[in-house]
Specification:
Two copies of one chain form a homodimer. Chain A is α+β, with helices and mostly antiparallel strands. Chain A is built from two helices and eleven strands; from the N terminus they run βββββββαβββαβ. The longest helix of chain A is centred in the C-terminal third of the chain and has 18 residues. Chain A is elongated, with a radius of gyration of 20 Å. Chains A and B meet through α1 and β8 of A and α1 and β8 of B. Bound molecules: zinc ion (2 copies). Chains A, B: GO terms for molecular function: hydrolase activity.
């Protein structure tokens, strides 16, 4: 940020009165331009076939991580709820009809200023279809997942939480909410 | 937003290629200026005294809702995790030493482009002290809560979820995550 979006004057980094952090502040109109984390919302859509649980993954047709696999997810938009964002991204990226269940993972990624939320979901049918941001959409059982080709650490971690919980569910347990924080690593977010 | 923060040229509302929504786009350098929801993170700090559960509320010293009561909460900052934001806001607004527990409520407020997250917490001691954004900080049992003077609907709802869960916990149940969506009402957020 170099210029004020309200008046076009240059901005400068300084700590406003009653604040403790440097912000971009306009040198003319004094508007403070706050910058805050973004929310990424997605789903973990599952399909039961012959007693086997499969998850729906999308092969990315866009950067970052072009060609890698991800759960359907994207930036939450203004004027929508988390659940609406989850439904919208699943339709846009995977063309998938889902029943949305409860919030499953809440993942902070401070080095890219993001919080990722994934909802558990069930596919209503298998009429999914890659959207413009996906090269392919496919179902994977646990042993079929291309773990080395997962686009984002938050997606890999959510899948791991899911298959761990699934073992508990099969012995009378329940799915539960998982919180996890990611710090800077070699793998881009 | 009237001007581009990268080059100071005017912006115009238009739908970028491969997009479905109007964005502010620079008329000179074509930068797309996305606007997305903000995350508000807070805590529900509790204190057990003589078998009675009390919650810590702050009387707001700032607008909006000056003079109304709220749970300690505020905008999440870049470069921090949700849990760090919860701890920081509790210290800044209430000077309270807490043990942070699990995420308790996830509340979408689409008409103000916000998602509110509240963590359950336990006070470690009663050496709390109003910060610069609070006129007062005090403990309230369920029947003492000034329900008509609660600053935000998300705070009132989180308190209601808490006391409902507390009744379940006393009969062998557990606290659980609560999701709720708020739509436009007479009460400002
Ligand atoms: Zn300005
Ligand atoms: Zn520009």
């Amino acid at each position: 940020m170099k210029f004020c979006s309200a008046c076009a004057a240059p901005v400068a980094l300084k700590v406003p009165a009653d604040d403790t952090r440097e912000r971009f502040v306009c040198t003319e109109c004094d508007t403070i331009h706050y910058q805050n984390p973004n929310i990424v919302v997605g789903t973990l859509p599952i399909w039961n076939i012959d007693g086997e649980v499969k998850v729906l993954l999308c092969k990315r047709a866009i950067e970052p991580r072009y060609g890698y696999w991800t759960l359907p997810a994207g930036f939450m938009e203004n004027q929508e709820t988390c659940r609406q964002a989850a439904q919208r991204e699943t339709i846009e990226e995977a063309g998938a009809n889902i029943e949305l269940h409860e919030l499953f993972s809440v993942l902070s990624v401070p080095h890219v200023d993001q919080v990722h939320l994934f909802y558990r979901a069930t596919l209503i049918d298998t009429n999914y279809l890659a959207g413009t941001e996906s090269l392919a959409v496919a179902l994977f059982s646990e042993h079929e997942i291309p773990w080395e080709e997962i686009a984002f650490a938050t997606v890999g971690q959510t899948l791991k939480f899911f298959f761990e919980d699934l073992k508990k569910v099969r012995t009378g347990g329940q799915f539960s909410l998982h919180e996890h924080d990611f710090y800077k690593s070699h793998r881009p977010e």
